[in-house]
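Researcher: Structure prediction, please.
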Amino acid sequence: MYSVSGLMLAGVVAAQAAGGAPAPIVQPGAPGAASRVISAETAVAMSRPTFTEHDVAFMQHMIVHHAQAVEMVEMLETQGSDPTVKLLGRRISLSQEAEMALMRGWLTDRGQSVEMPMAGMDHSGMEHSGMDHSAHAGHAMSADDTPVMAGMLSPRQMRTLSAATGTEFDRLFLTGMIQHHQGAIDMVDALMDTPDAADDPLLSDFANSVVGDQTAEIARMQTLLSDL
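Model: Predicted structure follows.
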């Protein structure tokens, strides 16, 4: 865990104190993305608070979202049967755990809680996006069939997954993870559509990486699902 603003300002201060040629300032990239050298002026500008309550909510919610994906992969290890699906699952788990660490660091560096508020929480348009909207057609969904937020598996879906084994589990896992990934993409889209949100450079880079990585993984999972 690191403080991006702290690293930037430390580089600026060190360069100024030396009184000579400024030392290069490196901005860490999002998981899977390369770092880049930025100017002192850019570093100072990026160190200023640029986040909104929507940014904070997005990061808090995405941590919970990622945690369920990691839980699904843990079940895959013991209940799945296809080695290729298991390999993909391990890659998903590693990337999501790294992203969870980045998100916790982002929140902590900005003095924000890493926990998602539960009472009276506002998902800022991120919950239930892309889910079954039968409730709006006069058929209220039970709590057992209602996911916490966009794309997450409902309690009933998680129980069904946990009871499956072998090829049945693999199919349910892939179907559920495709739904899960699409939900994360929908959450990013909702954030980007929110005025003044996602101006923080690290958050913006992270959100873009979520869309790119999970779109590619959805295509891979769709291929694997068709082969089972």
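Model: The chain is about 60% helix and 5% strand.
Researcher: Thanks, that helps.
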